[in-house]
Design goal:
There is one protein chain. By secondary structure, the protein is an alpha/beta fold. The protein has one domain: 3-Layer(aba) Sandwich (Rossmann fold). The chain has 8 helices and 5 strands; from the N terminus they run H-H-H-H-E-H-E-H-E-E-H-E-H. It has a 5-stranded parallel sheet. Helix 1 packs parallel to helix 6.
Length: about 190
């Protein structure tokens, strides 16, 4: 059921995030969140329209050349594209998502920009198929709130990070008296 809900919502977002959320999306959000303006100017509307993150993981730490970076829950690939451009095509960027429509949109965005150091993969969930200490950096933008088993994914992140690696998470935070059950949180993701 969870994957069905995610697929339904993400199919809409894969075409455009505009008007899907109660918070800014697209280029407006990227500007407000202070994404690198030099890189942002290189992105066409067809790419920026699908951005729906709630924060800028790159505001916490810089991404250098030759880094190996995982974008967990990459969606349409906007953050992964920023990372690929930050490494000047010398790093290796891997984007994972559980929704095939998002991976398809990310592939289109990657091809539109001629990005060569970005691999996009359909994920099966919270077990990461990577060796221990593989990544320099792991980012995730507004996805952990949708993961039912947060403890497992966080352990997987730390297992896959190199010593001294960076975990850059931005997400929504629950504020209230009672948290919704997981399917209800996914269903109300756009609210």
């Amino acid at each position: 059921m969870l994957n069905c809900l995610l697929n339904h919502h993400n199919t809409k977002v894969a075409s455009t995030a505009e008007g899907q959320f109660k918070y800014p999306t697209g280029r407006e959000a990227l500007e407000r969140l202070k994404y690198d303006p030099v890189i942002l100017r290189t992105l066409p509307e067809s790419v920026t329209n699908s951005y729906c993150g709630t924060g800028n993981p790159f505001s916490m730490e810089t991404i250098g050349a030759e880094e190996i970076l995982l974008d967990f829950g990459c969606g349409a690939g906007v953050d992964a594209i920023f990372a690929a451009k930050m490494t000047k095509n010398t790093g290796r960027i891997i984007g994972l998502d559980i929704v095939s429509e998002m991976i398809k949109k990310a592939e289109i965005n990657k091809k539109t920009l001629g990005i060569t150091n970005l691999e996009l993969t359909l994920s099966n969930g919270t077990i990461l198929e990577f060796a221990d200490e593989y990544f320099n950096t792991i980012i995730s933008n507004s996805v952990i709130n949708l993961v039912p088993d947060k403890e497992t994914i966080l352990k997987e992140f730390y297992r896959c990070l190199k010593p001294g690696g960076k975990l850059l998470l931005v997400d929504q935070v629950f504020k209230g008296t009672k948290i919704k059950e997981h399917p209800a949180r996914v269903k109300s993701w756009f609210q």
